[in-house]
Amino acid sequence: MDIITSHNALDFDGLAAMVAAGKLYPAAVKVFSGTLSRNVKKFMALYKDLLAVKSPREIEFSTVSRMIVVDTASANRLGQLKELAMRPNLDFYVYDHHPPAPDDLSGSIYHVEGTGAATTILVEEIIARNLPVTAFDATIFALGIYEDTGSLLFTSTTPRDVSAVAFLLAKGANLAVVANFMETPFSGEQRQLLQSLLNSARHYQIKNLDVTIAVCDNEQFIPGLDAVTYSLFEIENSDVVFVLAVMQGKVNIVGRSRSNNIKVNEVLRPLGGKGHDKAASAVAKGKNIEESIAIILENLGENINPGLCAGDIMSTPVKSIPMFISMEEAGRIMLRYGHTGMPVVDGDTMVGVISRRDVDKARMHELGHAPVKGFMTSNVLSIDTNTPVTEIQRIMVEHDIGRLPVVDADGRLAGIVSRTDIIRTLHGEDYPEDHAVLYRSGSEEQNCLDLMEERLPSRIMANLRLAGQIAASLGSMVYCVGGFVRDLFLRVPDFDVDLVVEGSGEELAQKLAERLGGKVRIHDRFRTAVIQLPDGSKIDVATARTEYYEFPAALPKVEKSTIKEDLYRRDFTINTLAICLNPERFGDLIDHFGGRRDLEQGIIRILYNLSFVEDPTRILRAIRFEQRYSFTIEEDTLRFACDAIERRLLGKLSYKRILSELILILNEKDPGPSLDRMKEIGVWNYILPEVKLEHLNRVTLKRIPIMAAWLEERYYPVNIKSWLVYIIVLLARLEQQEVDSILERYPFENYAAQTIQGSRKVPQIAEALMADPKLPAPEIDHMVADLSRENIVYLLLLVRDETAWENLVHYLDLKETVEVEIDGNDLQDLGLIPGPIFRLILDELYVLKLAEKINTREDEINTVKRWIEEERFKDAVVD
Fold it and tell me: Which residue segments constitute the domains of the chain, with CATH numbers given?
């Protein structure tokens, strides 16, 4: 008997390779050698009936003459089948992609090749033999290849793996299934392990590097220590992290490093460690945790290169600009010395920084006469003379800062370090190893694939992957950007996909729509497109572009640009995040402006000083995001917002733009705090100055979304515009003349304007309902039949008498179900001549049904017959 098997703790590459081997050797029996990984267990729970894999106890070892071993060539990895593999005279067929070792099995067939996945080797054999492959087969094979190549992103991936995947996709491999099983969240044990490590984490400063060492002690073995270490590394954000976990009496150690100044494999070598410069592991034999930590700390001191500090490379003395000179003069000084930015001083003390970009924009908006003090960035990052070059580089990259002032203990300028200084230092002959640091840390490298697969539906992931594949075929780069990425990190559901293309967004949108069976609408002026998908969802696509404003509060002009410049035109740093979708970089985070850091710190920050001058609506958006996420508007950002308000820049906006932003605020879950914030900083005076916010009933405001949701749930989705209900309540205390004035200046659509005018009579209707709490339904219908959905919500808010409220709800229930069942044909059958009388008859029947005096179709017919007998329609009856 021939059997097919793979290694213990089976992963998807091993499973897929076993299934592929089954295609090559259909008479062989597939046998698990031992345990399965967590993801494979989940897969087998669903698909085990289709795969028919036996356990070792189900086979008779004595009948086995050949073992077909895949994804390993080591007998030591065969678990419960190791004893069988050691028997003499047993033949082996070996298919593996791991480097050969002296103790490997030998056999009559020995395919050990350097592919990214073992499954690739077997798929190539299937292709060579022209064997049939079903869509289900292709999906399993793709799972194996994607897992062992990190979705074709690991450096071990070869062109052969990519070609195999292309073949499998052509055979119908289901990427949604692949995405579903590729990764799973941490188990409960792994989460507890991570928490233990966080609680025990110790921080050390060694030669200007931040080193974290965390420990834990578990009786049981918990798999995935490397993944847990990676999560700890991301949370602690240290330069180096070492995790020491006692499991089943052994000290397991994992090390990770961000810095080229330390090699963790060298640090762990005395403990038997192996691995790479920035990722290594060890099992400390004969050592306890404290002894192991002592060895690590001792070796850290010997293996860390400290590097240069700010005092070694700074320029001094520093040219600076007094705070009270004009922006025009500041521009001339920068031009004279060839600087793109300079420190601003008050005497000997540095108080801010001004950039040439700020000066250019001030000139554009005819504000060159204004003092530098009003436009400088006052919350300036600075360093001291002992700050290491690696830290200076990190600060510059994270904050997108081109120069950092060096200050002494009294706040006086001692020098300045520029990007040029850093580049010169990192490329110098004294520190050649740091060249890689500059290249790798254009931003802190992060891949978001795990987060995307955890948070995004498989259909969206498939669409994003397809967009990346199309972009690659066009020689373009494509990114998902903006609120979609922001809310991904905030773990807020947001599936409105926005794509930006370095290339032709219109061309990518056309091809993506074709592949997804959607329709595309192109906006040539703004280089944007909208893809409407068959399921009703949409994808916005834009060409990477930059915008400039010809005058304050103008609409932007658009030019083609790069992703960095496209992100720079956005309103706040938290909205500048992007994720690359091209296959070779799928999931890579693009964070040029520190958006991720501001998300973590809960800060709303503009990108440049004149942001609110260019577009004052950003003030309203800042308030909306601040209140939605319980964030805080950053100090300088708030100062520039208040300055723009004092300069009356909001007054230059069209009422159409103000209304659009106001509607977005009123559509928030609880807009009340945003209204208060607008009043606090002076925005409300430019919105609805007639409305005194302090007179609003806050209980009523909080009840609006509750009442609207209740009405929608009770009477089916009726698309109630909650923002319009808020407008009605805001305007409720105003005189009619004031309401008319607001409707004249704000371009409300007809439905909204009519609803606002109709709301003026709602308080009187509420009074009438409460005056007679048992008013019959037909009389209520007479009063409210022409009210809009939003005014019904308003009426329910105003009716405070319980009996009257229940009576109104009873009427609404009746109105939702009451329907006259007969029509004109039935009336003709009863002998009536068609004419205006038909409408009167049907209306009167509706009133009777609403009054619950008749209920059925038969009741309707009998009622009309009675009316005919009473000769109520004598002139309308056929003789």
Answer: 2-182 (3.90.1640.10), 188-303 (3.10.310.30), 310-440 (3.10.580.10), 443-601 (3.30.460.10), 688-817 (1.20.58.1960), 824-876 (no CATH)
